[in-house]
Each structure stands twice: as structure tokens, then as C-alpha cells.
Amino acid sequence: MHAIRLYLLFLHLDESNLYLTMKKYMICVIAAVMGMTGCSAQVPEGDLLSVEYTESGTMAGYIYEGRMKQNPDGTFMLKAMKENYGPLYQKQISKEAADTIRQIIIEEKMYKYKEHYRPRMEVLDGYGWHFAAKFSDGTSIYSTGSNARPGGNGLGRINGYMRQLIEDADSIVEEKED
Questions:
Q1: With left for phi above 0 and alpha for psi between -120 and 50, is residue 9 left, alpha or beta?
Q2: Radius of gyration, CA atoms only, the chain
Q3: Are residues 110 and 117 in contact, defined by beta-carbon separation less than 8 angstroms?
Q4: Global pTM?
Q5: Exposed (0-12), middle (13-18) or buried (19+): which is 62, by Cβ within 10 Å?
Q6: Chain-wide mean pLDDT for the chain?
Q7: Distance in angstroms (rounded) separating the CA atoms of residues 64 and 57
Q8: Nearest to 158 by CA among 26, 55, 21
Q9: pLDDT digits over 123-173, tens only?
Q10: Cys staple from 154: which of 63, 108, 120, 146, with CB 3.0 to 4.6 Å?
């Protein structure tokens, strides 16, 4: 103990300064760990520019695909499936509809999603999904999963709202191959 006190005197620290220094160090370590695990994600401040959500089966291709993007002229285009494994339709949607998708992302805290979800044990036959969103403030969300999902109902709400929006579309973008 005497050697430690001599070392502290050499560094011009007393025991109370050492305590404060260690406390600051621990706060920095905790903040760094939270940043690595996604706990420091902030609510996006900008407008939603694009969002995409896809689900696929192991061998069946896309079960569901939905993509919304703001065009250069400020309008929004949605390309989505009406039913599982169906054709991809497209439809121009309103800014209010894009804002509703943004609101779902905020309400469900989807900006806190981890980059990848997977189960503890390997599953060789199952499903995969992908979610991405970009905002005008430069914020991006990118998350994927293989046989595992985040908690909450964000993905389900995005899927359901896109299906609702595309329901009356009659313009097929592409036919899916059998």
C-alpha cells in the first residue's frame, strides 16, 4: 500500500483524485460498450427517404418484398407485394404515408435494432429478413435476421402498412418466376 501512495504522489494524485479518475474511466468504458451493442442509437431527426423490408424462405425466394423511396421530384414510390410470393406492384404514395412509416419506426424504436439477429442454435431450414431505412439527416438503419427477430412488432407493422397501401395498385412491376 505504501508503494501505491508513493506512486500517486509521483503522479500528483491523492486517493480522492484517483477515485474520480477511475470513475471517469469506468463511465467511458460503459459508454463505449453501449455504443458497440447499439444502445446509444438516437431517434432519427430527418424525414424518411427510403425504407425496405424483405422476407425470404430458404429455397422459395421472397415471401414478401416492400420498398418505398423518395423520387428526385419529392414524390414517393412504393413497390410491394399484395400477397406472399405474389407479383411486385408499384404505386405513388403521399408524403403523409411516408411519414406514417417513419412514425412506426420511431414508435417501435426500430432505430435501436441490432445489425444482425440469429438464434443460439443453427437452423438450416427457415427464413431470413432484411430491414433498411434512410433519413434526410444522414441516419441509416440496417438490420437483418436469420431465423430470429427483434422484440416488438415493428417489422409486422411495416409489412402490414405497406400491404395496406399497395392494396389498390394495379401496376405490376415484375412477375415472380415459379
A1: alpha
A2: 24
A3: no
A4: 0.73
A5: middle
A6: 82
A7: 10
A8: 55
A9: 777 899 999 999 999 999 999 999 999 999 999 999 999 999 999 998 888
A10: 108
